[in-house]
Amino acid sequence: MLRQLIILGVCAGTSMLIPIAYQSNPQAFHALLQSGAGGDSQERATPAAINTVRPKTPVQPETLTGRMVRLAADERGHFLADFKLNGRKVEALVDTGATTVAINASTARRIGISLKSSDFRHSVNTANGETRAAAVMIDRIEIGRVHVENIQAVVLDDKALSGTLIGMSFLKRLGKFEIENGTLLLAQ
Questions:
Q1: In CATH, which of 3.20.20.70, 2.40.70.10, 3.40.50.620, 1.10.10.10 is domain 80-173?
Q2: How far apart are CA 141 and CA 165, in angstroms?
Q3: Which NCBIfam families match (predicted)?
Q4: What is the mean pLDDT of each run of 10 residues along the chain (188 residues)?
Q5: b or e along 32-42 (b: 16 or more beta carbons within 10 Å of the residue's beta carbon)?
């Protein structure tokens, strides 16, 4: 009986991961299905080919009526767009898995945030491991007509973070954000 419950739990957990896997990388998901169905070997995608897909330039947000913006996902399912941080244009990736907005030291300087090495006193865990970070406040983040002021953020060394992540410290301040049919809606 216990064995059957464990198998049922594993099956239920796995079935919940399928939609998440599809949303995060539809091309890899289709390639996996095609290879499992015995498609032509030339059409099969290798893991190396899937991992080397680079996002194209940021998608221009579709500004809707009111203070709403809709972003289309890129070919990897990521939401990459041009935001303004403290009035400066910055290419950023919307990351619902990031607790706060995260920028690197070069971007911090570009948007007017001055830091000393002693400011990097917080230890943070990233996808690349543990690193040091400085806690800062960004005066204003905007995309289209959507804008939020006084957002908590962390600054990481350029080696630890190559781009900018728009995390939950921005997203939770919105009226809503939702992902549907390959688009992300940001609304105030």
A1: 2.40.70.10
A2: 12
A3: clan_AA_DTGA
A4: 50 48 49 47 35 47 74 94 97 95 97 96 87 97 96 95 96 95 94
A5: beeeeeeeeee
